[in-house]
Amino acid sequence: MLQQKNFFLPSYACILCQGAQSESRDHLFFRCPFSLTCWRYICPQFVPHMNVHQNIQALKEHLMVPFHMEITTLVCWSIWKVRDDYIFKNIRPSLYRCNQIFKDELNLVFHRARRKKYSQFANWIANFR
Ligand SMILES: [Zn+2]
Question: Is residue 8 part of a domain?
């Protein structure tokens, strides 16, 4: 998006896959090999589609929980944090780190969950690796 707005950066390549692709929204969050590894950890059946809406719909169908959007948002946030930590803090990206960020953020969201989603949310977290 920055490139389209003529905002100059030394590189527009995705740092999570060592510059093999340019860093578009769909690449960074769904099609990058690193991101795909993170998604498969959460949702092993996930296969990336061509756009963000199809990916969100596919995740909704695979996760089959009323809080699928919270999970989808938190995985994207975790991928973004891993990317930023690599750029700004030189912390190497890893599935472990992405998963740790996801779990920490998930626990924070859980404390704000609505009561009707509460027990299902608690069970999902308990069964999460
Ligand atoms: Zn990539």
Answer: no
Domain that holds residue 50: 25-127
Averaged pLDDT in 10-residue chunks for the chain of 129 residues: 74 84 90 95 90 93 90 96 96 95 90 72 78
Q: How far, in Å, CA of 101 to CA of 56, rounded?
A: 20
Residue 67 CA to ligand 1 center (angstroms) comes to 27
7 CA to centre of ligand 1 in angstroms:
20
* Alpha carbon of 39 to ligand 1 centroid (Å): 13
Ligand 1 mean position, distance from CA 32 (Å): 4
Q: What is the pLDDT of residue 32?
A: 95
Interval between CA 126 and ligand 1 midpoint (Å)? 31
